[in-house]
Design goal:
The structure holds two protein chains of two kinds. Chain A is of the alpha+beta class. Chain A contains two helices and eight strands, in the order ββββββββαα. In chain A, α1 packs antiparallel against α2. Chain A is elongated, with a radius of gyration of 17 Å. Chain B is of the alpha/beta class. The radius of gyration of chain B is 29 Å and the shape is elongated. The two termini of chain B are 34 Å apart. The chains are: A alpha+beta, B alpha/beta. β5 of chain A pairs parallel with β6 of chain B, so a sheet runs across the interface.
Chain lengths: 141, 300
């Protein structure tokens, strides 16, 4: 081989999405804008905002939705700690749209319960999912 | 002596109770697997988070940290302010001594700190009701969260950490204490009283050999901003673990409580059945006696 590779790990509090997957190229939605990472990158700790991340592994490309988190790059290891991460092709657009609608309705109703806060959280999640689904649609056609 | 009908009634009511307790046991047993794997799945994240904060902390200079909000979270505050308590209980009963012991521990803690101003964040219906019943304490319930079990998610932990940080920044809180049940094994739970904030002790206790040497990393945004963003997440991850532990412990406690309840019901049914049969036999014997003596009296 001889070709240098990155080891990508994506973790959320609820599960480990990817563990030490060798990839060639990663982009992450860094706080100040998209950031591309190639092997040999300087050690870096960066805050992420919600958005999409891609990685390339040979001819295979994949993308994820991530929500607020951090990434650490050290010695060709990329560790992404996100509050939520989902594989692009696992995002269900219809469900995301429904969730978006439902969250909006709940927020509009303004119940006294704690559901309000969780509705806000699911609204954010749904928004990112919709973005990912849209991206997928554009690039498939 | 109880009549045959009474005993039959009693047996059937015990039987239906047994059905319920058995069903609850099975439900808890099915859920506990998921709860356990959730704990396992949350571990790597929490570990990485701790490591990242430790890395960051060692990269920081004293002057970087001075006067920031992050410092407040790390360093201890002057004694004598408000005390904050995070109490994690179950929503439902029928889980043995799970809640009772927890509430006893909480009451002991409150007694210890009698006379101080106390602010409480409570998870679980049982704990909330308990705190509402308390009188004569300088106690304020800052945030309550009910109905999240058995589907506690990271979202809930996040909301909790927001609430706690709000208390911590708005009030002169000296420390935040956490009381919850830890899942030790399927048959035993342990009550843990832990210090959530300030953080310093928690991170510096780690072996310094595991952290890398300083000045290796670049940061975006600045170190202090990053730390400020990281710390709430760290607290969130801690709380998430706490919620999961408590959830698994509750299910384990319920499982063993319901199992012994089912066993007791079986024993009770056995005893009652024996009693019923004896009564029935006694009745038959008396009747026979009566018939025989009657016919003897007639026939001569």
């Amino acid at each position: 081989m001889g070709k240098k590779q990155l080891l990508l790990t994506i973790m959320t509090p609820e599960k480990t999405v990817l563990a030490d997957k060798p990839v060639e190229f990663v982009t992450i939605p860094a706080f100040g804008g998209e950031m591309g990472i190639l092997p040999g990158h300087a050690s870096f700790v960066v805050q992420l905002k919600e958005g999409m991340m891609h990685y390339k592994d040979g001819h295979h490309k994949e993308f994820f939705s991530v929500l607020n988190g951090f990434a650490e790059i050290h010695k060709d290891k990329v560790i992404v700690l996100a509050e939520a991460a989902e594989l692009g092709k696992e995002v269900n657009e219809e469900r995301a749209r429904q969730a978006y609608q439902k969250a909006k309705e709940t927020l509009a109703m303004r119940g006294a319960d704690m559901d309000l806060d969780s509705a806000q959280a699911s609204l954010r999640r749904a928004a990112v999912r919709l973005k990912v689904a849209e991206f997928r649609r554009k690039h498939k056609q | 002596m109880a009549s045959l009908r009474d005993i039959r009634k009693h047996i059937s009511s015990v039987k239906s109770i047994k059905q319920i307790t058995y069903a609850m046991k099975m439900v808890a047993a099915a859920r506990i697997k998921r709860a356990q794997s959730a704990i396992l799945a949350s571990r790597p994240f929490a570990g990485e988070m701790d490591r990242m904060i430790a890395d960051l902390y060692y990269e920081l200079d004293e002057e970087d940290l001075a006067g920031t909000a992050a410092q407040e979270l790390f360093e201890g505050r002057s004694a004598g302010g408000t005390l904050a308590l995070v109490l994690v209980t179950a929503d439902k009963g029928l889980c043995g001594s799970f809640n009772t012991n927890l509430l006893k521990a909480a009451a002991a803690w409150l007694r210890e700190n009698r006379g101080r101003k106390i602010s409480v964040v409570v998870v679980g219906r049982k704990g909330r009701d308990f705190l509402h019943r308390l009188k004569g304490l300088d106690l304020e319930i800052a945030h309550e969260m009910v109905g999240i079990f058995p589907k506690a998610g990271y979202v809930h932990a996040e909301l909790l950490s927001e609430a706690i940080l709000k208390i911590y920044t708005e009030l002169p809180v000296e420390s935040v204490t956490l009381i919850y049940n830890e899942f030790k094994s399927m048959i035993s739970q342990r009550i843990v009283t832990d210090r959530l904030l300030p953080l310093k002790r928690h991170i510096l206790e780690k072996d310094p050999a595991t952290t890398r040497k300083a000045r290796e990393f670049s940061f975006e945004p600045g170190k202090t901003d990053l730390l400020r963003a990281l710390l709430p997440r760290h607290i969130g991850a801690q709380l998430y673990r706490t919620l999961l532990e408590s959830q698994a412990a509750e299910l384990a406690a319920r499982m063993s409580a319901m199992e012994s309840a089912s066993k007791n019901a079986s024993e009770l049914i056995e005893g009652l059945t024996l009693k019923m049969n004896k009564t029935r036999q006694a009745m038959i014997t008396t009747e026979l006696n009566e018939i025989v003596s009657g016919s003897e009296a007639l026939g001569g």
